[in-house]
Structures are given as structure tokens and as C-alpha cells.
Amino acid sequence: MTQAQATTHLLYLHGFRSSPQSTKARQMAALMAERFPQVQWWCPQLPPSPQAAAALIAQGTAHWPTETSSVIGSSLGGFYATWVAAQRGWRAVLINPAVDPARDLSRYIGEQTSWHDPQARFFFAPEFVAELRDLVVGPLPHPEHFMALIAKGDEVLDWHEMATRYAGAQQTVLEGGDHALSNFDQHLPQVLAFLGLS
Known about the structure:
By secondary structure, the protein is of the alpha/beta class.
């Protein structure tokens, strides 16, 4: 890949039951504010409905430039990030991305709590599984636009499946680690370089 143009607009998409209060989202928000205040940063709270989440993402980024917009997504957010990057030709950084959330989340139908606020409850409706299927992207149109951080120690998702799904992308497969990628800060230089921000 040629030297990436510097990202001017950066979207962060959190995972299932997560929020903009996740450790990684807050680390990125602080880093962008401190070192890259010129970059437009957006980390929305995603609604439980994938269709509504997709609409929110599309509406909020409708006027973002193709060449210099990027997205970071973790877990289910990585699935959404793949969708938006494929649609818009953006660069995407994926952190333990969900490969088949329609399959994996079908067992979570019902009332759920938020990780960062157990008082916050939401209902994961049966129709959301079909909405997830509607957002599936086929083969990556530009694998070189994607970077995946994949932890072999992920206790939620199968790292082999992630590595296969993102074959052709820039991959870092980590020994050990966990689903949350608790040592995310150690990978920030690599992430920033991919975004043209180092």
C-alpha cells in the first residue's frame, strides 16, 4: 500500500453491549484530542438494532470524504466497520472483529445489560439477527484498506475464523491476548501509522 493519506475523519464503533465508555474508545478519544485535534472524531452510542446502527452511521458520516475517512471497530463494531469501509472505500482498523454475528448473537435474544452501565438495559430482538445478515459484506473489495488486530487468546471469537475472513488484509495475529485486547495501547503506533497519523 502506498503511503496513506492522513486521516481527517475518524469513526470508532464499539462492540455488542459496549459503549463509547469502553477502555479502547476512551484511549482513542484522549489520543485524538491530545495529538490530532484537527481530525474529526466521532464515537456514537450504537442502538441495539443493526439496521438503526447502520442508518446512524450512514447519516452521521454522509458528508465525510472518501479518501481521508477511516473507521476503527471492535468486535461487533468491527463487523459494522467492515460494512461501512466496503461501502465507502474507507480504511478500517478491526480489533477482534465479529465475522458472523447473526450466528453468534442469535443466542443473546432477550434483555441485555450494558458492560459499562449495568443499570442500562436493552432488548436484543429476534429481527435483529436478520438485520445483521443484511449487512454482510462478501469478499473484501480492497483488502489493502483493512488492518486486523487478532488475539489468539480471544475468549469470545475464533481467531482462525477472523484470520481467514480478513486474508489479504494487513494482519497482526497476537499470541495470547483477550477479546477486549486489553493491551490495545501497545498497538497504537501501528494503528496510527495505518491511518497515516504517525
